[in-house]
Each structure stands twice: as C-alpha cells, then as structure tokens.
Amino acid sequence: MMNPDSQRKISQALESKGFAERDDLKGEQLSAALRKFQESQGLAATGFPDHETLLRLGIDPKEVDQSLESFSGTKPSDDAGKGGSGTPPKDDPGKANGEKGGR
Fold it and tell me: What whole-number distance in Å separates Cα of residue 64 and Cα of residue 95?
C-alpha cells in the first residue's frame, strides 16, 4: 500500500481538480480517479501516479512515494504481458541468455 501521506496528497489534488468527490481516496477508488485525470490530460490511463501525472496534479514527485509495489500492489500497465517476476535483471540481459557482449 502507498504511504498514507502520499495517498492523501494525490487524493486532495484530484479532489481540488474535480476528479474525486472527497479527498481521502484509497486503493481502487484512487486508481480510478487517477485514470480519469490521466485520460483528461491525454496521458496513458494507468491509474498509477507516475512522474508526469504528479506534475500535472501540481505535486512535486520527490514528495511522493512512487515505488511500484507501494501503490495498491499493482504495476503500471506498460509492464503487462511481459511475464517474469517483475524484478529487473541484475546482469546484462544478453549475458543471462548465454550471449557474450562486445562483438
């Protein structure tokens, strides 16, 4: 779950811009309000408070916990269908497949 202070900031910003009826949204309600806002701004409607979404809400992204796992237990939709554990590889992906780099 996202840091409560971060949720509150985002929820208050959405409410002040008319995308939420109250300023204490959480979980799926917060994601749905974020998607509506993102659509209105021509952004990818992920429901995730990414950098550009936060800027357009008037929130300094540095003030918000943006770790992927912290927001409703979901990841942005651009990761959908890629499979894997969601953990970035520690080594060069080519080396993980037995390939050698540099040639």
Answer: 35
CA–CA dist 85, 70 (Å, integer): 16
What's the total number of domains in the chain? Answer: 1
Domain membership of residue 99 (yes or no) is: no
d(CA 103, CA 101): 6
This prediction's pTM: 0.64
Task: Assess contact for 60 and 53: CB atoms under 8 A.
Answer: no
Map tokens 């900031």 to a residue. 9
Task: Give the Cα separation of 69 and 54 in Å (integer).
Answer: 17
Tens of each residue's pLDDT in the chain, 103 residues:
678 889 999 999 999 999 999 888 899 999 999 999 999 999 999 999 999 999 999 999 988 876 554 565 455 554 444 444 444 445 555 545 555 555 4
- Is residue 103 in a domain? no
